[in-house]
Amino acid sequence: MSDTAVPSARAGGYRPNQAVIVLGLTATLFVLLGASLPGFLALGNLFTLIRGVSILGILGLGMAVVVIGRGIDLSQIATLAVSAAIAVTLVNSGMPVSVGLAIGLVIAVVIGIANGFLISVIEIPALFTTLASTLFILGVTRAFVVPHYQVFLEPGHETFLTLGGALDNGLPMPVVAFVLAAVALHLFLSRTVLGRFIYAHGDNAQAARLSGIATRPLTMLEYGICSAFGYLGGAIMVASTSLIHLQIAESTMIFDVILVVVLGGVSLVGGRGNVLSVVAGTLLIGVLLNAMTILNLDLQTQDMIKGTVLLVAIMADSYFHPRDEETAKQGD
């Protein structure tokens, strides 16, 4: 199968790849907004755009791993907020930045693995597991670590701040982190045995299990990777703003991440999609969100627009990855 077309079971021909279509729409939208929206092409706005796109893209990369494995992680943003808040608290207390960041990463991965354990071993549906873990980890963190909703990074931690800074040539570090994360995930999914196992798991979990793939540890790995990418995005957010607000877990950001993933072509039925899908969805949603901010649209209008785009993305997913093909493979 080529990278630019997928078979059409209904039409008997080929449909263009969803990621390529989304990239084309993004380019068209960018040109139209640049010509009609004052300030859109301003250098400061473009820097804001690529920074925001980078963080959203990093989160989307992590979510894509879970969705390719036919899962969903509604706790990613809560994990991001909790682990980053604990890391900042430890650094503020005098712990070396590297140690504080490492502990935050371990906490995030443990939360992800715990989600994967409950889903694969206890067999609680992913939707309810990750929703419950969101409430649990936020409650525990507020009760024992962060009594207030926000934690500020105190002055004097320049090493931490470099994550949100820029290279000598002016390229923002969040963009560098996004590119490196995208390349690393692409190599992992396409060039390693575990990456191929994740696709097989999402495509047909029963067949993967019968072929000898340890699907339960694989599920834990998928959710651990998702949480790790979420933590990376959270660390960059802290480095860019010098604070982390736990209420971000109660925002619509998780839906932005899911929107990025589905819109780019990572199928909700599992086993489909790649890093290019995430990049395509990230660019389109990043441009759209930036335009809505410049237009100063109220939150209700933004939510309606994002909800509409999400519904269109789900319909596109159904068109490009017909459900009957997937269910037929599983004997449903």
From TrEMBL:
Protein location: Cell membrane
Keyword Cell inner membrane: yes
Major localisation: membrane
Keywords attached to this entry: Cell inner membrane, Cell membrane, Membrane, Transmembrane, Transmembrane helix, Transport
Membrane-protein topology: Multi-pass membrane protein
Segments traversing the membrane: 20-43, 49-67, 74-91, 97-119, 126-151, 171-189, 253-270, 276-297
Cross-referenced Pfam families: BPD_transp_2 (PF02653)
PANTHER family xref list: ABC TRANSPORTER PERMEASE PROTEIN YPHD-RELATED (PTHR32196:SF21), ABC TRANSPORTER PERMEASE PROTEIN YPHD-RELATED-RELATED (PTHR32196)
Protein's name according to its UniProt entry: Ribose transport system permease protein RbsC
Organism ancestry: Bacteria, Pseudomonadati, Pseudomonadota, Alphaproteobacteria, Sneathiellales
